[in-house]
Specification:
The chain has about 300 residues and is an alpha/beta fold. It has ten helices and twelve strands. Strands 3-2-1-4-5-6 form a six-stranded parallel beta sheet, with helices on both faces. Strands 8-9-10-7-11-12 form a six-stranded mixed beta sheet. A hairpin with a 2-residue loop joins β11 and β12. α4 packs parallel to α5 and α6 runs parallel beside α8.
Length: about 300
């Protein structure tokens, strides 16, 4: 049988550093092509990995016709409608987090995937990284956790920061809640169960605090930002329970290896017909939780402003 063909939508820094190398180096697939909003970026990335470049509206259709699945390295609210379109065309989905920043956008992808029966994986890095995926599975199997704390204090927009991802308009607009919040939730939900209640507060410099109740009865807290001072940046997850305390490993491994593992997970779901735990339905759930948190934080800030007037 021929190898599954996977195309890539997106030609920015994340695609260049992670998605394209992972797909090009995967022995079990054919890297069928790259589409980019900037034709020159798509051409350069495709040339670097000996595949076909596409751009424009016609290029999307051409890549879909040459692929069995599509990987995404696009801003979430550009990703979502294109993913729904790909699913409607019968293509399996390898999406980035968050699936979308609106519940309606994420639900459109879920409905499209369900209508055609395609499989999907959302690349929540911790669930596929060699240094963290096993830890999450191990702690989830133990159970008995009553509380947890997760923090993602990223210095992307901190003073003196220099990162190619800082030029991302959607990250600057939506902040740490949407960019790194999915990391925290993707680890906490397997350990403590789905979220039943959210309380959110946002302070200066894009710092958002969440207090979460989980279906297991446990509670957790989350702190996220993209504007931490470099010296105060860092990330981690700690859980406490009847087994004591467990701390997420600090070494995640190479993101190329993580994305390759996510690709393997999608191929396994396609082979077996069994949905992956991190499929688009899980992606929708993350969007629902984050949208509720954003609404609460925005309303709290509005109340503070009114109180000062």
């Amino acid at each position: 049988m021929s190898k599954p063909r996977i195309g890539l939508l997106g030609a920015g820094p994340w695609a260049e550093r992670t998605h394209a190398p992972a797909l090009a180096g995967h022995p079990g697939i054919e890297f069928s092509g790259v589409w980019g909003r900037r034709p020159e970026a798509a051409a350069a990335l495709a040339a670097a990995h000996d595949t076909t470049a596409h751009s424009g509206e016609a290029g999307i259709d051409a890549l879909f016709a040459e692929s069995d699945a599509i990987a995404f390295a696009l801003p979430p609210d550009i990703q979502a409608p294109l993913a729904a379109r790909a699913a409607a065309a019968g293509l399996h989905l390898l999406m980035d987090k968050p699936v979308a920043t609106t519940v309606a956008g994420a639900r459109e992808v879920v409905d499209a995937a369900a209508s055609t029966g395609v499989q999907s994986v959302v690349f929540c890095t911790l669930r596929f990284a060699p240094g963290t995926a096993g830890w999450i599975d191990e702690q989830a199997a133990k159970g008995g956790w009553f509380t947890a704390h997760a923090y993602w204090l990223n210095a992307l927009y901190g003073t003196g920061a220099d990162s190619p991802y800082a030029a991302s308009p959607w990250r600057r607009e939506k902040g740490g809640l949407w960019d790194v919040g999915p990391h925290a939730l993707s680890a906490l939900i397997p350990l403590l169960g789905d979220v039943t209640d959210v309380t959110a507060v946002r302070s200066e410099r894009d710092l958002t605090h969440l207090v979460l109740r989980h279906v297991s009865g446990a509670a957790s807290t989350v702190a996220v930002t993209l504007s931490a001072p470099e010296a105060g940046s860092g990330s981690g997850v700690e859980v406490r329970g009847e087994h004591g305390t467990a701390v997420l490993p600090t070494e995640w491994g190479d993101p190329v290896d993580s994305f390759r593992a996510a690709t393997d997970a999608l191929l396994e779901s396609v082979r077996t017909g069994q949905p992956h735990a991190c499929d688009v339905r899980f992606g929708l759930r993350l969007t629902e939780i984050l949208a509720e948190a954003e609404a609460q934080a925005t309303e709290a800030q509005a109340q503070e402003t009114r109180a000062k007037d």
